[in-house]
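ARCHIVE CARD
Drawer: 12
Card no.: 0347
Subject: one protein chain, sequence and derived structure
Cross-reference: see card 0346
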Amino acid sequence: MKGVYCLICVAVCLTVTGCSPKRSNDGEASSSSSSSDSSSSSFAQNDAPAPPPPPQVQAPSHNYASVDGELYLYAQGLSDDQIRAGQAAGGFVGLKYLGELNGVYMLQQENSDQIDTCTNPCTFIKVTNQDGALVDRIQWVPSSIIAEAFSDAFNGFLKPSVNVPGYTGGGGQ
């Protein structure tokens, strides 16, 4: 009876501690099933597809093509006549950013004494002379060069000019 009791104790001990060796197909002992089960379950968890990354929000970029001193250069498109004539590229419009005063943004075209002003948001552009007298009002067209320049000003891409000769109409620096 003592022998049976000892066999039962050994069998229980081996079962509880996981000491019973398993044989692989080639007859060698292998590790217990609990370690192989945990590695296969972690492998299955790693097979799940990763969630898609959040969409990238692209920051706005400036519209000007180049800078020449205090002038921001905006590329002009070509007309159909210019393309038919073989012209490969348009010229540039040079604009100087005079600054912002009380929510009014001011630009001046190169070699012009007129000042273009606009608020943000803009529905029309006011054109004045350097004394502040109204010359014209221009409809806001988003694809126009002047609208692209004001968009650059609104988005903080333009630095105010430090050289505004003869300007007395208020604003600027």
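Annotation on reverse: The longest helix spans residues 2-17. The chain has four helices and nine strands.
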